[in-house]
Amino acid sequence: MTTKEPAPSRRKTWQKEAVLKELASSSGFVSAQQLHQILTQNGTVIGLATVYRTLNSLVSDGLADSLVNNNGENLYRDCSKDHHHHLICNSCGVAVEIEADEAESWASKIATEHGFTDVSHTIEIFGVCGKCSAK
Ligand SMILES: [Zn+2]
Ligand SMILES: [Zn+2]
Ligand SMILES: [Zn+2]
């Protein structure tokens, strides 16, 4: 659990918007470094630490999804707000949002069996997408 930070000042707003805009135009998950590179290439003067901070605040505000890939890298995406899972390409980073009804019922069943309440889960499926494997 992270400690509550004070509400972002007006000065920070454009940075949040710039990060969110780039995130929305990406088809897949991107790392903070990749996003920082894109922003810099587009002429946005922003520090990598600010990109990290902004991404994390977007995640805690529920405006972005984050996950850790097989290399232990944190990746971010502007996702739909409803609970869902992802298929992620290890090669190009493209993400497919999937619903997994079987996983939802399995997760709640197993939690109930063990007396757990207030449960949540994260399921991400990594692989190589059709486009990449055709190359
Ligand atoms: Zn998503
Ligand atoms: Zn791919
Ligand atoms: Zn689920």
Question: Could you explain the architecture of this structure?
Answer:
By secondary structure, this protein is an alpha+beta fold. The chain is 41% helix and 17% strand. The protein has a three-stranded antiparallel beta sheet. A hairpin with a 5-residue loop joins strand 2 (65-68) and strand 3 (74-77). The longest helix is centred in the N-terminal third of the chain and has 15 residues, at 10-24. It starts with 9 loop residues before the first helix and ends with a helix. The mean pLDDT is 88.
Question: What features would you highlight for this structure?
Answer:
single chain, 135 residues, alpha+beta, 3-stranded mixed beta sheet, globular, binds zinc ion
Compact description:
This protein is α+β, with helices and mostly antiparallel strands. It contains 5 helices and 6 strands, in the order H-E-H-H-E-E-E-E-H-E-H. A 3-stranded antiparallel beta sheet has the order 1-3-2.
